[in-house]
## 1
Amino acid sequence: MDSTLADALVQRLAEWGVDTVFGIPGDQANGIMEALRKARTRVRFVHVRHEEVGALAAVGYAKFTGRLGVCLATAGPGAAHLLNGIIDALCDRVPLLAITGSVHHDLTGLETLQGVSSEKMFDHFTLYNERVMGPAHVQVAVDAACRRALHARGPVHLTVPNDFQSLPMSAGKGSEQNVPGHSRPAHFAPLRVPEQGLLERAAEVLASRRRIVILAGTGARGAGAELSEVADVLGAPVIKALLGKDVFPDEHPLCIGGTGHIATVPSKLAMDEADGLLIVGSTMPFLNWYPKPGQAACVQIDDKPERIGMRTPVDVGLAGDARATLRALLPHLKRNPDRSFLARAQERMQRWWQFVEHQGTRRSSPMKPQVVAWELSGLLADDAIVTGDAGSVAYWINRCIRLREGQRFSLSGTNCTMGSGLSYAIGAQCAFPDRQVVAFVGDGAAAMVLGDLATLRQHALPVKIVVLRNNSVVLERWEQLSFLGHKEFGNELSPLDYCKAAEACGIAAVRIDDAARCRDALAEALGRAEPVLVECVVDPNEPALETPLVGHHAENYGKALEKGTAEAPQIVRALLESLKDEQRFIPEAIDAPTAELIGKLERMRS
Ligand SMILES: Cc1ncc(C[n+]2csc(CCOP(=O)(O)OP(=O)(O)O)c2C)c(N)n1
Ligand SMILES: [Mg+2]
């Protein structure tokens, strides 16, 4: 039988190496579903419960494999549901192909059922966005879309009108201008290295500095060994943006952790004291966590030249591949003879880990969220893939999870969308059926994508979902209090039994509410070969604190508590305990406004 346009589409995707498509069928896309049915032994269709989860799963798949992620939806509402994943791919620079069906070609623009144009809807957020115009167009359009997504690292979109999907390929006579076979399914990734003169200038700039820090982001992936060597030569501690948490092990002696709101104290202090900054593959968005403009000479390596100088003034920009550029730079670098800056950062980091361990091994009731993160960290397999989510969980992941070489981590970074944890985990487990995949998420985020617990059962994906249950979207509480000095409002979640929900979706569940039992219960869940949801009942009053606390945020906490925000007495106790821990282990984190807050909290408590 003659193959259809949709068959040719799926066949071409397979030639591009696509083996998985995440999505939901719909009448405007069912011609493509038929092609996927026929090709099901080569291309797996993963039926999710919400197209947004499908798009985010495809982003997760792409992030963890480095390959193209693909999602599919019907026209109108299905397409609209994909949008958040498309934006996620745009923000985190991930190759994603979104395929939608659209209304019959001769009903376009006529307000027919689901007739909203997905091309117009996606236009602002895609790097390539086209309608397939017939059989002679399908292969070249797929090639152009895949090339653009992989080369520019971002989302692209193809829509196929309903009736075109089932057209026999033989029906499509190309135009006289089109030469059949002029395009092949191939992409050639360049390896860019800056010219020698620039490398020399960069080395010169760094040679005059004695207190250099390195900021590594996801763009430094694959350059861990080179980062380590450069850091050693420069006597520079390595700080990581959250998306780059897994590019350099937390265990590495030169690593001093994350930055931004979730910074470690040693990393914030090192940024404050630095006279040199080497940025490798990062555009970490929190400007207050960079050295102040004029404070430090800066060299930035990024393979996207337009991102150089985006966040902080740059003295020398090196547009190139991170690994190749670091390799080329190394012979030009002079060893920094002054090791005192590094030694100070490392000594602080030792005390930081003592602080984290102390907070992660408390046995108080209700259980502290740090306990779950700390115990989980110790139990992760050597090649575990951890996915995270927007919420206080991002603080605990960054702080308490000590990633080792070979382990992977991601969450929705710049888009920072709730729901990425479970969605990315679906993508990761499809790509790596034999690796341990753990989604570490808040209860608000879990509630947003609850239906997709059923996807784990349906596709036999043994993901472990660790849910921090605090019956609240609690990060918003801390933001309302500390960013604005307001009473909290609108954050509570009516209690939801996540174990029952999981069981209703056909997956096993366990509840942990006792810190002393946490490690064993987590270990038992992680050891099972099936999907398991672990509901961890944690203290909603444990503040997700910036460390060190930003001065005016300390003042705002005081104001909000004096106004009598809900549960103020419990918050006072928890906040005081956390700040006192910090004071005990790393007293240099406590500046005047924070010391004043501590005094105020002590008076409120008594
Ligand atoms: C889709 C989306 N909606 C809203 C937000 C704003 N937001 C960021 S974190 C957060 C709280 C998340 O709550 P939960 O998952 O329960 O985590 P918790 O902070 O309680 O640990 C919210 C509402 C967001 N980032 N994404
Ligand atoms: Mg919550």
## 2
Amino acid sequence: MLPRAPAALGLLLLLLPPPPPGEATKKPTPCKRCRELVDKFNQGMVDTAKKNFGGGNTAWEEKTLSKYEFSEVRLLEIVEGLCGSSDFECNQLVEEHEEHLEAWWLQLKKKYPDLFEWFCVKTLKVCCSPGTYGPNCLACQGGSERPCSGNGLCSGDGSRQGDGTCQCHLGYQGPLCTDCTAGYFSALRNATHSVCTACDESCKTCTGPTSRDCGQCEAGWVQEDGACVDVDECAAETPPCGDTQYCENVSGSFVCEECDPTCMGCTGKGPGHCKECVPGYAKESGQCTDVDECAHAGGVCPRRNENCYNTPGSFVCVCPEGFEEAEDACMQPRPARDEATEENPAPPPSREDL
Ligand SMILES: *[C@@H]1O[C@H](CO)[C@@H](O)[C@H](O)[C@H]1NC(C)=O
Ligand SMILES: *[C@@H]1O[C@H](CO)[C@@H](O)[C@H](O)[C@H]1NC(C)=O
Ligand SMILES: [Ca+2]
Ligand SMILES: [Ca+2]
């Protein structure tokens, strides 16, 4: 018997709230739960192996060490670390089967060193050995040694579920995942192995790795001198991009990018590739640059005394501070006068509405 553990577990289980009803729908399969438990158990064995009795090798220490190694004390330590305190399902599983775990630990470990095989497959019958599936643990398609020729996943592999059929990895197809899909070619094929390798990006189908091995070209490539070469879509008679965009030829395709905002039409990125400039800009050593209208001889501001400020793409005319705007000039300020008394004879505030 495990000292104290059952009582402690029972108390723990009583104190725990029942699992929320929603959990039931997405709970892990019994096999997955068993596998997790075994993983934790194996980890517990690793952790406790490092523990206690470091160094020294006197006869007494060796004797004590081997005593601990197979002891119920060590088993209890491992079992205590198996489940999180709020993991109801895990604690239930341990409680239900701790006699099994104890029997394996004390008597069967030598004969059945793989706890997963002994506990989850043979004893609880909730899992299958790797490479087998279904209620009776039948061999997967392609055999239990290398299911699906090593190129796919066997449905239900290692569980008591599934139908043993293959879900092939990318590039493979067929019941045993030995055939290559379009876009892949067979790089190796013998009685037991099949390797499919991706074609060059220019091929839709191929018999080898380069653009010269294409059967059909991929969209965006054309057959030329025995190879598939990229189409320059930008050179098409009707350009594929808009008036405010330029076209960039890329492998298998093309992209349209917006012109610089200073351009009216362009052939590439930035203000240096404009066809024409937008109003307010002019080409200056090949680049569309803001025109400094204020620098024009004679000035651009129509009114007398007016100040000119250059802005990107334009300019503004404003009267100097304190000047007053008139039809055709900025007027010098008149001498100051008492505006408050003339225009705002402020009445004393009424208190009645407070
Ligand atoms: C098939 O090819 C694999 C991978 O190269 C090789 O390991 C295996 O021995 C080959 N089997 C046969 C039967 O030739
Ligand atoms: C663009 O077009 C030319 C065809 O003139 C092609 O040879 C070239 O490789 C294409 N692709 C890229 C990414 O430049
Ligand atoms: Ca292209
Ligand atoms: Ca300007």
